[in-house]
Structures are given as structure tokens and as C-alpha cells.
Amino acid sequence: MLAIVLGSRGLRDFDSALVPYAAATVLLAFGVTYRYTSWVSGPAARRLFVQGWRTALSRTNLRAAPTALPRLALTYLGFQKFLGARSHARWIAHQLVFWGCLLAVLITFPLTWGWFTFTAASPQGPGYQMRLWGYRLFSFRQDSLLGWSMFHGLDLAAVLVIGGVGYFLWLRTRDRRAVTGQRFGYDFVPLIALLTVSVTGLLLTFSELALHGGGYEFLAILHMVSVVLTLIYLPFGKFFHIVQRPAAVGMQLFKDTARRKGEALACRRCGEPVDTAPAVANLRETMRELELGWDHGAEYCPRCRRVLRGGAYLDQVKRGFR
Amino acid sequence: MLGRTLFIDPGRCIGCQACVSACRECDSHRGTSMIHVDYPDAGHSTAALPTVCMHCEDPVAPCAEVCPAEAILVTADGVVQTADPTRCIGCGNCVGACPFGVPQVDPAQKLQLKCNLCYDRTSAGLAPMCATVCPSGALFYGTLEQLTTERPGVSVVTEFAFGEVVVSTGVAMVAPASHRGPVPGGLPLVEVNGRPA
Ligand code: SF4
Ligand code: SF4
After folding, report:
1. ipTM above 0.90, yes or no
2. Which of A114, A292, A317, B25 is the most buried (most CB within 10 A)?
3. B99 vs A312: CB contact, 8 Å cut-off?
4. Any idea where the domains of chain B sit in the sequence?
5. Does residue A116 surpass a pLDDT of 80?
6. Which CATH architecture group holds B5-184?
7. Is Nucleotide-binding one of the keywords (chain B) (predicted)?
């Protein structure tokens, strides 16, 4: 809220038509904070959170591998390379949704907070000025390419999102892996929400360009309602992965650093690498805290655990079957 | 009480790996098998042990408890699901914490892979792929009654002892009728057929 008041120069640039949007972003901030706090207070997540940040900010680490963090952030969070390993189509669709949403967020959030304003450069001209926090950034002409994309950035975003969401909806009706155990509220509602937001957004432009504003008010309300509900829903359902995902970068850094230092842990029975020693130690602490009472087992590889169990069955349950 | 579930009888397993092939063929995780067949007494006997997810339930499966991303969901019917791909970060905690050695992590996909009792099939009343192809009946899907009419005089165990801890499971193990108490989990180390493990 402080950001809104300051950014809009004491609400001078704040557009009152955007109040519901701005309010939803404030609610969003509260929701995310609440969900995040309850998430990272669980034993496993809390340890991951601490270790991840500790590695990311450790001075020796920053000196030894200064590019590791930005590189991981870009390939992992930006280009989501791991999704390509799951399936190329999924990767493309997710990239469409991701960049579409990011574009939309970058345009709309500052706009609704009154950070950006567009003012006519001169009373006669077709030129506009873009201002950030009241300062003039640059001017452009409405009929230039830049001008066009400034006003149609959201339409572009909507097209990207619709493409990606369309693929995922199709997947959810076809793919056995996706269909198994899917839940309407968790798996479909987010897709439908994105679709509604994008389609109503596009229809607004359509109404403006082709229908001379026909149905504009109704569409505007529909669009607003869908955006506001989506933002409020965000911390509680599937969309929460947007907030959770960066934890993976911390986890990766934590393991990579240990690996670089050669801190691998070998299975106590067969000697095959299990994981990095700090990761196993970390897990054992979590298991102790959860009173699982079996944390020493984490030092054996999964195969040895199975073989040993088979051996125990042979030895103590059904001797023989030679 | 057990409903329809999987019963594993290591005494019947001939180590043919048909279940591994069937699991790999399945539509919901193409190309990777979620079932493991191990030979605990390799070189000395033909003993083999198939391992699927035991669907631990006490009170929540260990894999789900240690997951930092809240990715492993347990459905109301007690099936511990594969990690939700949008949440799983591939950290491997579940791999380390599972006493049965079930989950795997694909480092490239940053994704856990684990048996979900063929949920696409079992939730529709079908048997899991592994049980439909097992030629020796080492993997049997059905109710306890169905099992005991077919195999009189066996006992069925859903408790496993790992040192001091006892884990109870939704998938059962078949044991000789004389067997009492939980099935040993294998740790601490024991001997196999008289030889050190
Ligand atoms: S057997 Fe392992 S993977 Fe299956 S529920 Fe238990 S802990 Fe989880
Ligand atoms: S690998 Fe995935 S499912 Fe397993 S503990 Fe980590 S985040 Fe959870």
C-alpha cells in the first residue's frame, strides 16, 4: 500500500477506476504472505528455506561461483529447462503462459498502482509521454510500432496465455498422466481463470475496435471480476507454485555447492553415491524432528534398503525359498 | 481394515520382471518402471522381492511428511499419490525418507517418480498393471477374502518394523501362517540365509 501511495505521488496519479484491481493486489500480498509463512514453518520447508538462503548468500560461495545464482534463476525460473525434459510441448505451452502472465503483470500492476501514467505530449500531436512515478521516461507516437505494442501489450499477453492454456486444457482431457487423480478445483479452475481473464481482456479490445464500444461496460465488469477473483485465489491453489518454485533454486544451489566441494555421501552398504552429505544430514534432522525414528536409514541407497528388507524376509519370515 | 489392495508374496516371486515391463508400458508414466524387483540373495538362491509403494499410513506417509514442497498428496482412499509435477522440486527428500526404497527422482525433469497403485486403473475398479501380468501370483490385487479363499492358511501383514519403529501400510505382505508380529524392515543389518547381508 505504501508502494501505491508513494508510487502514485500521493495518489495524484492514481486512477480511481482501478480501485478494485489495486485492492485485489493488496489482498494478494496479504494472502501470499500468510500462505508463505504457514508453508515455510513446516519442518522440511523451513530447513530448505534456511539452507537455500544460507548458500545463496554465503560469501565463499558468491566468490567461488558468482554466476551460479543468476544462471540458475534464468534457466530454472525463466526458461524452465526442466520442463523441456518432461515434454517439449509442455515446455512450449508453459513458456507461453509464463511470459504472457509476466508481461501482463509487468504492465498492469504498476498501472493500477498509479506508477505509470500516459500523458499527451502536446495538445495537437499524436505523441504520448510515458511517465514512471511522475518522471518522464520517453515519448512515442501512437501510430508507431512502440505505440502499438504499448497499447496492445495486454492483448499480446492474452494471446500467449490462451495458446498455452488451450494446450493444458486439452492435455487435461486426454493425457492419462494428467487425468489421473485430477481435481476440478485444483487443476481446472486455474486454467479456466486464466482463460476467462484473457478472453474477456481480448473482447474488450474487440468491442473497442469493432463494436464501437458495444457491450464494453459489461465486459469490463466481467474482466474485472475474473481478474480480482484470480488474484485472490492465487495463494491458495495451484498458482501457489509460482511462489514455491524459487525454493528449488535454493535447493539446487545447496546441493551444487556441496557437490563442488566433493561432499558426496556413499551408501553405507554398497558405496554408491546417495546424495550430498549436507543434504542427507539436513533430511535426517527433519526426520528426527518429525519423530520418524528411522533417520539412519537415509544413509543407505534405496536399492540396499529393498535388498536388506528382502534379506530380512528370507532370514526371519520365510527361511529359504532357495 | 483392508479393502481391495495389493498383496505381495515374495515366496512366490520368480524374479521374471514381467511386472517391471508392464509398469513401464503404462500410459501414466511412459518408459519408466515404478516397481522394483531385487534379488536379495543373488548368486546363492533364486529369491526375489518385488517392491511397490506400500502406501504408508501412520499417520501420514514418511515421504509426504518430509516433502518441503507439499507435493505428495494422500487421497481419501489411502493412496499415496505421485508427486504433483507443478510442486515437486526434485529435492530427493522423499527418496531418502522412504523406508522401503520406493521413490526415484529424475534430475533432468526435477521430478519424483513413484508408484501410485495405478490410480488411473484402481480408482476405476481395475487391478494395477503389475498384478495383471504376474504369472506366479506374487502380486495379487483384491480383497483379503479373495486372497484367503485362493490361498488358505497364509497370514497377511501390514506392519513393518524398522528398528524400534513400526510403519503400517495400505499394501499388504503375505507371510507363512506361523508368522506373528510385524515383518522386519531390514535395518539394522541382518543375515541373509545364514550369511551376513
Ligand atoms: S512406501 Fe515410501 S513412497 Fe510409498 S508411501 Fe511409504 S514412504 Fe511413501
Ligand atoms: S523430490 Fe519432490 S516429492 Fe520428493 S520430497 Fe522433494 S519436492 Fe517432495
Report:
1. yes
2. A114
3. no
4. 5-184
5. no
6. 2-Layer Sandwich (3.30)
7. no
- pLDDT value, residue A124: 56
Query: What average pLDDT score do residues A59-71 get?
Result: 77
Residue B137 scores a pLDDT above 90: yes
Residues having CB closer than 6 A to ligand 1 are B 53-56, 61-63, 80, 98, 100, 102-103, 114
Look at the alpha carbons of A37, A38, A41, A42 in this order and tell me if their dihedral is positive or negative: negative
Compute φ and ψ for A290, nearest 5 degrees.
-80, 0
**A225, pLDDT greater than 80:** yes
In ligand 2, the atom with minimum distance to the C-alpha of B90 is 1
Nearest CA in chain A to B186: A309
Tell me whether B150 touches chain A (CB under 8 Å). no
In this prediction the pTM is: 0.85
- Is B193–A319 a contact, with Cβ atoms under 8 angstroms apart? yes
Which CA distances in Å does A75 have to A98, A213, A247?
A: 13, 42, 14
Distance CA A317, CA B182 (A): 10
Per-residue pLDDT of A175-207, as tens digits, reads: 877 877 788 888 888 999 999 988 888 888 887
Q: Is A310 in contact with B10 (Cβ distance < 8 A)?
A: yes
